[in-house]
Amino acid sequence: MDKISLDKEIILNAAEEVIRRFGPEKANITDVAKSLKVSHAALYRYYNGKTDLWNAVTERWLSNLHVYSKDILNEDTPADIKLFRLLEDFAEAKRRSSINDPEMFANYLKLAQSSMDVIEKSIQDGINSIKDVIEQGIEEGIFFVEFPKQAAVAVYHATSAFIHPNSFEAVDRKQNIESVVNLLIRGLKNPNK
């Protein structure tokens, strides 16, 4: 590959493929450089080493993981229905990835243990999405809370157990998700409606 055509997106694609091929424990920046037919030094013009590159791969993976959530946020539906669907998608997105893309999910888990910056950004994005729906619900007269951000943090934490890998194989997982989400939505609803 000609060095002139090298850019961050091409490097991210190659790194993702290397992680999928070798797994997050064995993959390294030299493998990425070899797959692109460049020196590993060429990659340092774009990323400050393996950690920086792996963080960028995981950040993009998390963003792609929640594409459906972004579609839900743009739907023209009442806030209670939107919040139910959003929380259900948050719970299922990582479980689906653990099944359909196990190497990238393993990379995410590895990163979660060593670098919280990307993970924290993803958490804040999730909380902000929930806050936006709660604010929509307040405007619609469906939800009644004084502090939407605080409520969003509480809702996120109440449902975060379902994004943990230990919950993925639970026999009553779907029922538990629905029960918790319905309880949270009832707690947010305006009692006068």
UniProtKB/TrEMBL annotation:
Coiled-coil annotation reads none
Q: Which superkingdom, per the lineage?
A: Bacteria
Q: Which residues form the HTH tetR-type domain?
A: 5-65
Q: Where are the transmembrane segments?
A: none
Pfam families found in the cross-reference section = TetR_C_27, TetR_N
Alphabetized, the UniProt keywords read: DNA-binding
Q: What SUPFAM superfamilies does this protein's entry cite?
A: Homeodomain-like (SSF46689), Tetracyclin repressor-like, C-terminal domain (SSF48498)
Q: Which InterPro entries match?
A: Homeodomain-like_sf, HTH-type_TetR-like_transc_reg, HTH_TetR, Tet_transcr_reg_TetR-rel_C_sf, TetR_C_27
Q: Tell me, which GO biological process terms does this entry list?
A: regulation of DNA-templated transcription
Q: Which residues bind DNA?
A: 28-47
> A single Gene Ontology molecular function, please?
DNA binding
User: By its UniProt entry, which PANTHER family does this protein fall under?
Assistant: HTH-TYPE TRANSCRIPTIONAL REPRESSOR SCO4008, TRANSCRIPTIONAL REPRESSOR
State the protein's name.
HTH tetR-type domain-containing protein
